[in-house]
Amino acid sequence: MRIAILADPIDNQYGGVHVYTRNLVEALLKENSRHEYFLIRPKALPHIEGAETIVVPKSPGFATLRLFLIIPWIIRRRQIDCVIEPAHFGPFNLPDHIARITFIHDMTPILFPHLHPWTSQVLQRMFFPRILRQATRVITNSKHTAQDVIRLFPGTRDKVITNYLGVETNFQPMAQPGIPLQYGITSPYILSVATIEPRKNLDLLLDVYTRFRTTIQDRVQLVISGKRGWKYHTFFTSLASHPFREDIILTDYIPRDHLPVLYSLAFAFVYPSKYEGFGLPVAEAMQCGTPCVVSHASSLPEVGGDAVLYGSPDSADEFCTQLCMLYQDNGLRHKLIQAGQAQVKQFTWAQHAQVYSDVFEEIERGEGQSYESPNHPITNHQSPPVCIIILNWNRPGDTIRCLESLWPMVERRRAAVIICDNASTDDSEKQISAWIREQVTIDCIDELGDWSVIIQQTGANRGYAAGNNVGIRLALAEARFDYIWLLNNDTVLAPDTLEHLLACADHQPDAAVIGSTIVDEDNRNRIQCAGGCRYSPATTIMLPALNGKSVEKVLQQPPQVHLDYISGAAMFIRVQALKKIGLLNEQYFLYYEEADLAQRMRRHGYTLAWCPQSIVYHAGARSTGHAATSWLVGYHENWSTLRYTADYYPWFLPFAAACRFLGKTLIYTWFRRGRLFAAMLTAYGDFFGLSPRPSSQNEKKDGCEGRMHIVGKYRVKG
């Protein structure tokens, strides 16, 4: 297999990502040499034997062009089978047949954005969801990091793998007193190896050192090894006024061959970090025989186990107490040294490379990360080919009208129905259940069985994508459906609309999503859209196909239409394609779910289609409130536009975001829509990291929140 590694960190970094990338490359070349490896990097030197280096220089002002166009072009041209991104920012713009392995070091840019530069916050928010969604496998360096990834991005659950880092074999106990002298170290010392930036919590370390020196009354130096990172001004302000400033040594970057000596000769290694993805310096210190006092935050207990002393990253007193105990108790020091060297044996680069080798084998076998339904298929020779999913949030009358229009399909066993109630605030469950029970051809069943109708409570207002996904999972849990038909609850179906869709699907086997002719319910000769819409990424304008045209005239001679996506009001989806590309993208709450689905379908070689004779009457906007005044609609329309543009047209994002903001500002000002302007400001601030995105915007908390459960299952008699 031809494997490309995006190896920029080898040339342009000095910290943990540099160490990781270099050791990963060396371990893969040593442990699994049967593959061809290509290193894409900005410099040719130092040369790494066993891999072909592809130099793509970095030039000021051309970083975007390099990342989004040049590197993808090279990868395609060199016929690469798999791409590894060791720094989790990419790869971009690759065809789906190229596997992607993304390594996640930590989630701090999203969990703690205030600890990072503003540019990093914005880029991570823009691209991270897309990177994870497109990855074939996501490898994390600890169980804690894996849990963070899955919690923030649930869709990654089935492709996340934990793979502990290794420690280089040259990190061993060493006694070369001359090396510490080169850095001005002339007495016993405490060592901390960390980039000077807020997450490393070095301000607290200065406080710990003050307390420690005051307590022990001996001269013990503090050595901090690491380059300046970002947001370090408070650290240097505290350092300048420190009472023991003359005994604090900042070494800047230390060559890797000096570092084992500094570890080995230190009285203790101290690591008060607020959050780590792994904590490689702790493992290095243990392997060098240095007792450690570390924070009990995040992944550090996985690394340290029972072989280190712990303190709270918020308590200088705890760290000082542990250091004093270690300074005064040689028996404890000896015990920790032995325990540390035993603990660190589980962290080897050979084992790390083996996990990658296992992933390579999966890729060669063609195993993907597509949705797989549970293994409890139900077979029935009379099973309907279509499962209709209707999402309800309040206004049960609309849902009942929709059910009335499609009920003949249920009675003829042409379709089954799942109604997903998104925690309505009214009595939707009660009214819809009562209507179903009134149908004389229905009997209630308790077992799953050959049901015709299910009412499912989702437990919260999850929005369009997540709410529909609840029903899709239920449908995919059975092997009897060929198609899933997503319908808005404010739609009414023409009598033969399903038969036209089935015929269209038979004639167009490559069409994964088929749209109907969506007609204005209040003017049944006026088309709202012919199947779906066109989309302009530069202006973010959606243009419904044949909007306003006469139904009668269009159906006499249906024209060819080009669609960028199918309208979410009525999406007829082939189950086979859905299993391959995955469910709806739950990042989106009200907008762009169908556009995102269409993008993923096309990338897998599927097409979209319009079935002119399939008529669906649509009212529109009833479940969200009128678009002119609803804050919820205004927020998600703008946030989702930015998210979709960043995911699929990133080169348009600066221009599109600016144009949209200016245009919407003029419209909102002219029509005096202050609520919508406030919603847009919030959406822009949340997306670009100017403010944390409140959960209330992503998931409305009103309604009958609770557990997800099936309210009732029903079957047509006969």
Highlighted features:
alpha/beta; 718 residues; Spore Coat Polysaccharide Biosynthesis Protein SpsA, Chain A; elongated; 19% strand; 40% helix; eleven-stranded mixed beta sheet; 27 strands; Rossmann fold; seven-stranded parallel beta sheet
Number of helices: 26
CATH topology of the largest domain: Spore Coat Polysaccharide Biosynthesis Protein SpsA, Chain A
Named at the architecture level, the CATH assignment of the largest domain is Alpha-Beta Complex
Mean of residue pLDDT values: 88
Structure write-up:
By secondary structure, the chain is of the alpha/beta class. The protein folds into 4 domains: 2-162, 3-Layer(aba) Sandwich (Rossmann fold); 178-344, Rossmann fold, CATH 3.40.50.2000; 386-623, Spore Coat Polysaccharide Biosynthesis Protein SpsA, Chain A (Alpha-Beta Complex), CATH 3.90.550.60; 631-698, no CATH class. The chain has 26 helices and 27 strands. The strands form 4 sheets. Strands 14, 15, 16, 17, 18, 19, 20, 21, 25, 26 and 27 form an 11-stranded mixed beta sheet that branches. The protein has a 7-stranded parallel beta sheet with strand order 3-2-1-4-5-6-7, with helices on both faces. Strands 10-9-8-11-12-13 form a 6-stranded parallel beta sheet, sandwiched between helices. Helix 2 crosses helix 15 (349-364) and helix 5 (118-134) crosses helix 23. The longest helix has 18 residues, at 631-648. The protein is elongated and about 90 Å long. The two termini are 56 Å apart. Residues 369-382, 621-628 and 692-705 have low confidence and may be disordered.
